[in-house]
Each structure stands twice: as structure tokens, then as C-alpha cells.
Amino acid sequence: MLSRMTDAPVKQQTTTGFYGMAIASFAIALGSVGIALLYMDVDVWIRAFMAIAVLYLTTSAITLSKVVRDRQEAEQIVSRVDQARMEKILAEHDPFRTS
Questions:
Q1: Domain residues of the chain, as ranges?
Q2: What's the pTM?
Q3: Sign of dihedral through CA atoms 19, 23, 25, 26?
Q4: What are 50-94's pLDDT values in tens digits?
Q5: 66-72 LR contacts (CB < 8 Å, sep 24+)
Q6: In angstroms, rounded to a whole number, what is the distance separating the alpha carbons of residues 54 and 47?
Q7: Do the Cβ atoms of 58 and 30 come closer than 8 Å?
Q8: What residue ranges are annotated as transmembrane (predicted)?
Q9: Please, are residues 7 and 87 in contact by the beta-carbon 8 Å criterion?
Q10: How open is the CA angle 90-96-99, to the nearest 5 degrees?
């Protein structure tokens, strides 16, 4: 009998430190831009425009990261289903059986 090797992907989990660093980095970057907007020597409407642009960029980046993650997860699921089908076909195949 053939031995089957399954390549079960290891579930990747982020550590608490990495998660905290990502949140801190995001907060520092957004805070820095906010402070820069407050101290910028321009008219109020230009500050407002820049603030809205920063918010739009931030929400777009979050949405993009979610879409990329969702697509990657969907590809992994399809790959696992295809692998399971192939393993079933190989398990049922008997090259010495005559029909």
C-alpha cells in the first residue's frame, strides 16, 4: 500500500508582540500625520482636504489588506479541496484491477 503524505499547511498565528507593534505603528503614523496637519502653515480648507485625504488613504489601505487576505484564504480552501479530490482518486485507483 502506498503511504500518503499530506501537506497540511501550518496555521500561521501572529504573536501578541507583533500584533501590538502593528497597532502601535499604525497609531504613531496616524498621530504624526494629525500633528503635522495641525501645525501646517496653510489655510483651514487645505488642512481639511489633507485630513480627508489621509482618512481616505487609511480606509483604502485597510480595505486592500482585507481583500488580499480574503483572496489568499479562498485560494487555500480551493487548493485543499482539489488536493482532497486527488487523494481520493489515487486511493481508489487500482492499477492491477481489470475491468
A1: 16-92
A2: 0.58
A3: positive
A4: 999 999 999 999 999 999 988 888 877 777 777 888 888 777 777
A5: none
A6: 10
A7: yes
A8: 21-39, 45-64
A9: no
A10: 95
